[in-house]
Amino acid sequence: MSAPLRIAMWSGPRNISTAMMRAWENREDCAVSDEPLYAHYLAQTGLDHPARDEVIADGETDWRKVVGALTGAAPGDAPVWYQKHMTHHLLPHIDHGWIRGLRNVLLIRDPREVVASYVKSRAQVEADDIGLRQQVALYAELAAAGDAPPVIDSGDFLRAPEAHLRALCGWLGIGFSQRMLHWRAGPRASDGIWAPHWYAHVWASTGFEAPPARELALDGAAAAVAEACMPHYRQLHALRMRVD
């Protein structure tokens, strides 16, 4: 693969992944793609997600065709291409060879925060639904190949978004743009068809917001899922990007 610069941000749900997509799309040189493997993931797993049938009908369910598109020309021939991915969409049968041709970044969040937000849109949640185990595996795979990705913790990021974005742009070898810090409210044509079910907060936003100070009260299955994911989170959190 050659130009464009392909940035793959590997996240879990209910992180700041959509806000991050807004930041990159607001650059003048950047195209974005919103969870291109989602239709394949739903078609293969049979999971009941909001707008499941619409997502499958609207998207590409053949992962090989998705990968072919992601490694081809960027939308509008943009020089920078930000690809927003959910790590749990990387089902076991998907070959990973193409991933090593991308500039990969991991975006993590405290699983207690993730689960508390997730169950507002989908009542049932399993540990593998939020992608932290898969993020640990992907990090290990890339690190073993000599290309350990930077890890960004969303809580840290929201306390210093400009510093993190400057550091990330520096790692990528591109200039930082102040346009990444603010965007217009509302939906975008680039949003996935599932956006009405998940993106209300981002649609109302015009920039990154400081993380809320709150006590989370999870119980039952939700608490168990968060606890099961905590060791994976701690492992990646120890590797997170640190900025001044």
TrEMBL record:
Keyword Transferase on entry: yes
GO terms of molecular function = transferase activity
The record's annotation in InterPro entries points to: Class-IV_PLP-Dep_Aminotrnsfr, P-loop_NTPase
- Per the record's keyword annotation, is Transferase included, yes or no? yes
Q: Which GO terms describe its biological process?
A: carboxylic acid metabolic process
Q: Which Gene3D superfamilies match?
A: P-loop containing nucleotide triphosphate hydrolases
Superkingdom assignment = Bacteria
| Sorted UniProt keywords | Transferase
The UniProt similarity line reads: Belongs to the class-IV pyridoxal-phosphate-dependent aminotransferase family.
Q: Sorted alphabetically, which PANTHER family does this protein's record hold?
A: AMINO-ACID AMINOTRANSFERASE (PTHR42743), AMINODEOXYCHORISMATE LYASE (PTHR42743:SF11)
* Name of the featured protein: Sulfotransferase
